[in-house]
Amino acid sequence: MTTTEELTEEARSHGAETIDWRFKSDRIKGLYCDGVIAISDRLTGKEQAAVLAEELGHHLTAAGNILDQSVTANRKQELSGRIWAYNRLIGLTGILRAYKMGCRNRYEMAECWTCPRIHYRRRWNTTEAGMESVRRSTTM
User: Fold this and answer.
1) N or C: where does the chain have the smaller number of CB atoms within 10 Å of the terminal CB?
2) What is the CATH number of domain 1-88?
3) Do the strands 30-33 and 36-40 form a parallel or antiparallel pair, or are they unpaired?
4) CA distance 49 to 22
5) What residues pair up with 32 in beta bridges, in sequence order?
6) Reduced to 3 states, what is the DSSP secondary structure of residue 17?
7) What is the pLDDT of residue 127?
8) End-to-end distance of the chain based on CA atoms, in angstroms?
9) CA distance readout (Å), 17 to 3, 13, 95
């Protein structure tokens, strides 16, 4: 079962329906509204999984319309959905697994995690610090 299929099942178990959608703009990758997660049908498998995870995070953590990102509360809810997605797709165990598999830089880690580079890049500062602490603890 692919990550996208696992996330689709997880969304269903949390009461959200997932659909593939052809958005008018290529800039829109996914949207969540009223229990429906729409994912762009132009995305690759890795991109679909990353976007689906983030939209599922919004389903589970956000309330109301958060499209207006000039409002601080909306930006906070956007971030909480992203953090949920990072933790679901990667998490601390993913960082440790990448290290144990011999990954030594962010590009190797992205391949190990099977997520698009654009998705993990936002989390990289935290991940890089995590990798450094793993290196220190395993060499002592």
Assistant:
1) C
2) 1.10.10.2910
3) antiparallel
4) 17
5) 37
6) strand
7) 47
8) 38
9) 16, 9, 30
Quote the tokens at residue 85.
């997605």
> For residue range 1-54, what is the model confidence (pLDDT) as tens digits?
898 999 999 999 999 999 999 999 999 999 999 999 999 999 988 899 999 999
For residue 44, the one-letter residue type is: T
Distance of alpha carbon 41 from alpha carbon 21, whole angstroms:
5
Listed by start position, the domains of the chain span 1-88, 90-140
Task: Using a pLDDT cut of 90, give the percent of the chain over it.
Answer: 57
Element (H, E) at 11: helix 3-13
Contact 61, 84 (CB under 8 A): yes
The total number of residues written for the chain in this structure: 140
